[in-house]
Write a structure and sequence with these properties.
374 residues, alpha/beta, 6-stranded parallel β-sheet, 3-stranded antiparallel β-sheet
């Protein structure tokens, strides 16, 4: 069975990367571990109390009210957001192997296969795994909740932003502006060399998007992230990469494996942060993070009221959850809405916290109803 077949899978396994070297990571960890210095009476256990003492409809009304009152919106998203698009949010090795039986036969867990070493030792297997995902995300349409989020953001007087660990490119596919998104674990919509340090052409040479040439963002030296290796590598669109994958063996046909976009003699790999990844090309992610940091500074300087809408972000790799909490803590007037059917608790902070124990699409549709009727 070739690439046309579909297994139940989830790009969003890719968000389980344990070592995101984001410019914000150390800040997030430090602030997350010291929330007690940011406490205010209104936020003490507020999110958890809502779940225990308010009806679900009251919680949704509270969330709609917070969204209505905000000047700007930060959307943060993890793997769970894609469930309603048909991308299962499986957990543990059993769920992973159910989606990828050939890897169970090989005894490879997600953490083991999501490693850049396979592109050198077994490129057909590596591209079988990532090529299948690449094909799946192209075939899958973002669910209606993305449209609701886009409407909410566009109706605000000030611009918003998206911070996601998902690598499927579905925010762009749903109409969100490329320059208003941080993909902290990279994107399967782009490729790079497997050894970028030896074929770099310079950060201002060429970064390509699926819609054509995208000039590198001019990073302000005073706010630029620290060098993270391979930051000047060529990163190119994967739009012309069309892996043909034998789903029985999870191997890609050699002729469909892409070459290095810089033109060296090596193969290409996705511009996605993997486990034990020392060759990830950071240029695109760095640019996104600088834009995000600048946006936050501008919104704080303007005294904007922020609402953070977090969807499907789990605790296993809490990059997105911490980004939500740190952003909310950094504004004088902010609300964090955490939408998650299982892990919806909110820690103490200077913000108002609203826990919504529901799936993403159902919660967004219910909130939209309240926004229209209240």
């Amino acid at each position: 069975m070739k690439a046309g077949g579909r297994w139940p899978t989830n790009d969003h396994m890719l968000c389980h990367v344990c070592a995101t070297k984001s410019v914000f990571t150390s800040i997030r960890v430090e602030l997350f571990d010291n929330f007690t210095t940011f406490l205010s009476p209104r936020s003490r256990g507020f999110g958890l109390r809502l779940v225990n003492s308010m009806s679900s409809d009251d919680i949704l009304k509270k969330a709609a009210s917070a969204i209505r009152a905000a000047d700007c919106v930060l959307i943060t998203a993890g793997a769970g957001l894609g469930v309603d698009s048909g991308l299962p949010d499986f957990r543990g090795p059993e769920g992973f192997w159910k989606a990828y039986p050939p890897l169970q036969h090989l005894g490879l867990s997600f953490q083991e296969i999501a490693n850049p070493r396979w592109f050198s030792s077994d490129p057909q297997l590596a591209w079988g795994f990532y090529g299948h995902r690449m094909n799946l995300y192209r075939e899958t349409q973002p669910h209606a909740g993305f449209g609701i989020l886009l409407d909410v953001m566009s109706q605000k007087p000030k611009p918003g932003f998206v911070f996601t660990s998902n690598v499927d490119g579905h925010f762009q596919k749903a109409g969100f502006a490329e320059d208003r998104i941080v993909e902290c674990h990279g994107s399967l919509q782009f490729i790079q060399c497997i050894d970028p340090s030896r074929c770099s052409r310079g950060a201002n040479d060429a970064v390509h998007s699926s819609s054509g040439l995208l000039s590198c963002f001019p990073i302000d030296p005073s706010r630029a992230p620290e060098p993270r290796g391979a930051s000047d590598a060529v990163i190119a669109s994967s739009a012309d990469v069309k892996p043909v994958v034998d789903l029985a063996t999870l191997h890609a046909e050699s002729a469909t494996i892409p070459r290095c976009p810089a033109g060296c003699d090596k193969i290409g790999r996705p511009n996605v942060l993997m486990f034990g990844d020392g060759s990830f090309a950071w240029a695109r992610t760095d640019e996104q993070e600088v834009r995000y940091e600048r946006w936050q500074a501008e919104m704080r300087a303007a005294g904007a009221r922020l609402v953070v809408i977090e969807l499907g972000a789990g605790k296993a790799v809490p990059t997105v959850r911490r980004a939500s909490e740190v952003a909310a803590n950094s504004f004088k007037d902010s609300t964090l809405i955490r939408i998650n059917p299982r892990e919806h608790g909110i820690p103490k902070g200077t913000y108002e916290g609203i826990s919504v124990p529901m799936g993403s699409l159902a919660a967004l549709q219910a909130i939209q109803d309240h926004l229209k009727s209240d």
